[in-house]
Amino acid sequence: MSMPNTFNLKAIKFRLSRFRLTNKHTLTLAYLVLLLLPFVVAESLGMLFEGMYNRVLSALNLSAMMAFFVQFPLAGRLRHVPLFANIDWSIAKHKKIGKYLGVFFFLHPLLIVAPKMLLSFDALSTSIISMITSPQLLTGLIAWVVMAVWVLMSVYKDKLNMRYETWRLWHVIGLVAIATLATLHITTVGSHGQYNQEFNVIWWSLYTLSMMIVIYNYFIKPRIIQRQPFTITSIEKVSPCDWQLTIESKSKQRFAFEAGQFAWINTSGSAYNLEQHPFSIASVQNNAAQLSFIIRELGDYTSSLNQLEIGQTVFVDGPYGSMSLDQSRTSQGITLIAGGAGIAPMMSLLRGLARQNDTRPIRLIYGNRSLERMVCLDELEALEKRMANVQLQLVCQQLENAKDTLRPYVRQGLIGKSEIDASFTAGQQQNWAVYLCGPTAMIDATTTHLKQLGLASSQVHFEQLAY
């Protein structure tokens, strides 16, 4: 009878040993603590109302308002603020939380009058009419309408016949308008603001900080970036659908970054222009003041890369991203998995490892539609010959040349579990680090494979750059 219990105990211990508190877990916990702060303050001041329904609704209202203000730093590219420095995580949460806030703000007036339904339909209709027609509630009503439009524009962004820069401008204007109206509403009409003016200091302080983030991002930061311009030194087509862009600081000052990071580049001629695009850095950190990017033509801006000219001014905002070789310092081996344009950060990481003369097993799995679409093949093959610990695996959906199948490191198909499993030294999966970059579908499929192979989330590092 003791054997099943012993087995279960061992299984639990094994699962606990496999769980590691990752950076993203820490960020999520810190974010939740932030959301609860207004509720804790209200509780300490004895401001919460009696009755379970009012108490819960009050907690939800306060947390939702706090979540709205946190939307500003989440989208603010605050790389020097640890809580918001993980840009990929922050932008993903900005999008997701924005949708939840839209739903909650829509339900907010309905939740307030919901108890009236228990009395009578007349009481409910009277309350609704009163809310709509009351001059005191006008700020809340306008904020409610603007929020609905703001969320719909965000959800259906890809379906709108609107340039991204135009959409972004209206997105920011809407965010500022909602913040202004909502702050006026909660401090003049909201139950907490009405009865405790000191509590309003919290909301006006948060509003001020939010506006400072907007002013910094759209007026102060561009001025700083404009003083540190780059110039295009090379623009070369390296495959039928990929370009390699190399830029150099005009001041010859070294641009500090970690292998695996990315930056927003602006080729419009003005640092204040909203036409900024995030691309992974493909070069490795060195003493030169140059940066290199491998960029795939995916429409919109990238389809006009052939119009860039040598000597053209470029403004760079960065570096950003938490993916770096520091994440694998203690790992016994490293697997790099790239899909399509995802090769750029993998090249940066691989070049960084080669520069350090890293002797650990290093595997690169590179997938693409065809062999001719793959870039840097000569460099990769030379690196594999020079470093005995480096192994290359190319995976192509189509092999147009029969000779390509004779190469031992070329396979037809998609990157799957077998290729990933083969990249690990037998029995060393638990001590391996994996870096990913590629289309969202590939990232999702690969992370599923890695989980099935027993790797913990703390061993897998990726950023999607879907902004």
Provide the descriptors you would attach to this structure in a database record.
single chain, 467 residues, alpha/beta, Elongation Factor Tu (Ef-tu), domain 3, Rossmann fold, 6-stranded antiparallel β-sheet, 6-stranded parallel β-sheet, 12 strands, 48% helix, elongated, oxidoreductase activity, OxRdtase_FAD/NAD-bd, metal ion binding, 2Fe-2S
Folded structure, characterized:
The protein is α/β, with parallel strands linked by helices. The protein folds into three domains: 19-224; 234-320, Elongation Factor Tu (Ef-tu), domain 3 (Beta Barrel); 325-462, Nucleotide-binding domain of ferredoxin-NADP reductase (FNR) module (Rossmann fold, 3-Layer(aba) Sandwich), CATH 3.40.50. It is built from 13 helices and twelve strands. It has helices at 2-18, 23-44, 52-74, 87-113, 121-133, 138-155, 164-188, 191-195, 197-226, 343-355, 377-386, 417-422, 440-452; strands spanning 230-239, 242-249, 262-266, 277-280, 290-296, 313-320, 333-339, 362-370, 390-398, 410-412, 432-437, 460-462. A six-stranded antiparallel sheet has the order 4-3-6-1-2-5. The chain has a six-stranded parallel sheet with strand order 10-9-8-7-11-12, with helices on both faces. The longest helix has 30 residues, at 197-226.
Task: Indicate the low-confidence ranges by residue numbers.
Answer: 10-19
The description of the largest β-sheet is: 6 strands, antiparallel
Secondary structure: number of strands: 12
What class do helices, strands and sheet pairing give?
alpha/beta
Amount of beta strand: 15-25%
Q: Helix and strand string, N-terminal first? A: HHHHHHHHHEEEEEEEHEHEEHEHE
Distance between the termini: 55 Å
- Rg, Å, rounded: 26 Å
- Tertiary shape: elongated
Number of helices: 13
The overall average pLDDT, rounded, is 85
Can you tell me the number of structural domains? Answer: 3
Helix content: 40-55%
As laid out across the biggest beta sheet, the strand order is 4-3-6-1-2-5
Keywords: 2Fe-2S, Coiled coil, FAD, Flavoprotein, Iron, Iron-sulfur, Membrane, Metal-binding, Oxidoreductase, Transmembrane, Transmembrane helix
Membrane topology: Multi-pass membrane protein
Cofactor: FAD
Coiled coil: 373-400
